[in-house]
């Protein structure tokens, strides 16, 4: 878009790019001031969280369908409408004027007039907006909660409507964040003092030591606490996998899908930097992030290796973490883009890749050693069914109970896996098990 760079114009550009390529790259926002940069993330994620509903309303007040609109027009309208309906603090007239100006500058005066007409009509009816009323129940639910129809279908079938609605509502909320103290750089006591001094509000978790629930990660970025390696941003449920692997100082640990590396960093901390973590990933760009983090966090026992984890030549390890690539349906509140990116076919591909990775990971565990399989998915095929398939095929691994590591409320009934859901546990949806090699 050929207009002045602001949080609004950059967000519209990112949304257009996402529509065209399914790729969400926030780097163009780096040219903005930190506050505006954060605003871009808010706009983009919030609009993606409500995309189907916004499109429905726009369609109701426009003579052409949303699908027929040019990407620029569609996304200018989405952003302005999001501001009018969901963003307190921006008066409707300001949202409309901004939308009209951007449309005029980027697409010409006719487009400006069209944006003006559609948004003013919506504003006139803002207290009695139409509700989606499709006969097709899946389409109705998908539009109301802004999730793709295939997800709605499978979740309603699995959980029933009431529960599925709660899950989708949770996915549409602004997520909560956790930060974890890095004991390689500081102590929990000092970290708390530092947050107090900076007037950062936090709630210390009683699920795992060192995790703090915070409203926003912005102060940790602006005060350089992440770059200085004092703490890292990691959902508490993402901390469960390293916790149940229980890496000890001096051990050899493989992290086989490691990048961008938050779990490797936590394991390095748990090992007090002693012993070796071999962090493998297939993606060189993501490994660059891991390398930077390892330096920032002084996680000196991490050795990085770019490789396909299905084809590794490594000796046996005390512990192996396979934090497998997955659909990410447990993290749709933080990664709203994923709901529009993922397809049912991808789920099938993901299951196949996980199966191959799990079998290969198992080959690197020494007798008596541990293998942790984890995902940030809530789909049974990627989780429990994957583990069951593995156990049916290999009798040299056994599941171990997790109650000594994690609170009961995040465990399955038999205590052999953890599975969290955003609407139940107030954190991301993660799954994991610990397998012991018995022969
Ligand atoms: C869920 S992410 C890992 C997140 C990481 N454990 C963390 O905590 O930061 C999955 C990773 O698997 C990697 N991956 C996918 N296929 C792979 C393969 N065949 N071999 C190794 N890594 C692979 C992806 O590049 C991605 O970084």
From TrEMBL:
Q: Which domain of life is it from?
A: Bacteria
> What EC class does the entry list?
transferase
Family membership: Belongs to the class I-like SAM-binding methyltransferase superfamily. RsmB/NOP family.
- Which GO BP terms sit in this record? regulation of DNA-templated transcription
Catalytic activity reads: cytidine(967) in 16S rRNA + S-adenosyl-L-methionine = 5-methylcytidine(967) in 16S rRNA + S-adenosyl-L-homocysteine + H(+)
Write out the annotated subcellular location: Cytoplasm
**Coiled coil region boundaries:** none
Give the keywords, sorted: Cytoplasm, Methyltransferase, RNA-binding, rRNA processing, S-adenosyl-L-methionine, Transferase
Recorded source organism is Rhodohalobacter mucosus
Tell me its EC number(s), please. Answer: 2.1.1.176
> For binding S-adenosyl-L-methionine, which residues are annotated in this chain's numbering?
281, 307, 323
InterPro entries xrefs: MeTrfase_RsmB-F_NOP2_cat, MeTrfase_RsmB-F_NOP2_dom, NusB-like_sf, NusB_RsmB_TIM44, RCMT, rRNA_ssu_MeTfrase_B, RsmB-like_ferredoxin, SAM-dependent_MTases_sf
Q: What is this protein called?
A: 16S rRNA (cytosine(967)-C(5))-methyltransferase
What the entry lists under PANTHER family is as follows: NOL1_NOP2_SUN FAMILY PROTEIN _ ANTITERMINATION NUSB DOMAIN-CONTAINING PROTEIN, NOP2 YEAST -RELATED NOL1/NOP2/FMU SUN DOMAIN-CONTAINING
What GO cellular component entries does it have?
Answer: cytoplasm
Q: What does this protein do?
A: Specifically methylates the cytosine at position 967 (m5C967) of 16S rRNA.
An example molecular function term from Gene Ontology annotations: rRNA methyltransferase activity
The record places domain SAM-dependent MTase RsmB/NOP-type at 167-438
List of catalytic residues: 376
């Amino acid at each position: 878009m050929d207009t002045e760079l602001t949080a609004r114009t950059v967000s519209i550009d990112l949304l257009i790019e996402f529509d065209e390529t399914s790729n969400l790259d926030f780097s163009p926002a780096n040219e903005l001031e930190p506050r505006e940069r954060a605003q871009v993330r808010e706009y983009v994620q919030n609009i993606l969280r409500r995309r189907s509903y916004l499109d429905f309303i726009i369609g109701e007040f426009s003579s052409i369908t949303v699908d027929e609109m040019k990407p620029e027009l569609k996304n200018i309208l989405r952003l302005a409408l999001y501001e009018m309906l969901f963003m307190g603090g921006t008066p409707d007239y300001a949202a409309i004027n901004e939308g009209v100006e951007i449309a005029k500058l980027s697409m010409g005066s006719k487009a400006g007039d069209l944006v003006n007409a559609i948004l003013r009509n919506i504003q006139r009816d803002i207290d009695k907006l139409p509700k989606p009323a499709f006969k097709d129940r899946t389409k109705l639910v998908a539009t109301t909660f802004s999730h793709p129809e295939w997800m709605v279908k499978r979740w309603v079938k699995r959980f029933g409507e009431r529960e599925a609605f709660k899950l989708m509502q949770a996915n549409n909320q602004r997520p909560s964040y956790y930060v974890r103290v890095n004991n390689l750089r500081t102590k929990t006591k000092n970290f708390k003092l530092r947050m107090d001094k900076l007037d950062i509000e936090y709630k210390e978790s009683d699920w795992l030591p060192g995790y703090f629930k915070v409203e926003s990660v912005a102060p940790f970025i602006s005060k350089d606490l992440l770059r200085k390696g004092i703490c890292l941003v990691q959902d508490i449920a993402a901390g469960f996998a390293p916790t149940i692997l229980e890496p000890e100082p001096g051990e050899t640990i493989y992290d086989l899908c490691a990048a961008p590396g938050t779990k490797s960093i936590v394991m390095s901390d748990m090992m007090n930097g002693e012993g070796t973590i071999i962090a493998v990933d297939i993606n060189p760009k993501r490994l660059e992030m891991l390398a930077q983090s390892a330096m920032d966090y002084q996680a000196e026992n991490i050795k990085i290796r770019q490789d396909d984890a299905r084809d590794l030549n490594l000796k046996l390890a005390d512990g192996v973490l396979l934090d497998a690539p997955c659909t990410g349906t447990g993290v749709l509140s933080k990664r709203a883009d994923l709901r529009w990116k993922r397809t049912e076919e991808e789920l099938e591909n993901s299951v196949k890749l996980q199966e191959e990775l799990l079998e290969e990971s198992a080959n690197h565990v020494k007798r008596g050693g541990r293998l942790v399989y984890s995902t940030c998915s809530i789909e049974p095929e990627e989780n429990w069914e994957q583990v069951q398939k593995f156990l049916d095929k290999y009798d040299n691994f056994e599941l171990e109970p997790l109650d000594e590591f994690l609170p009961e409320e995040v465990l399955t009934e038999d205590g052999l896996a953890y599975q969290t859901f955003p609407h139940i546990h107030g954190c991301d949806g993660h799954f994991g098990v610990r397998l012991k090699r018995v022969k």
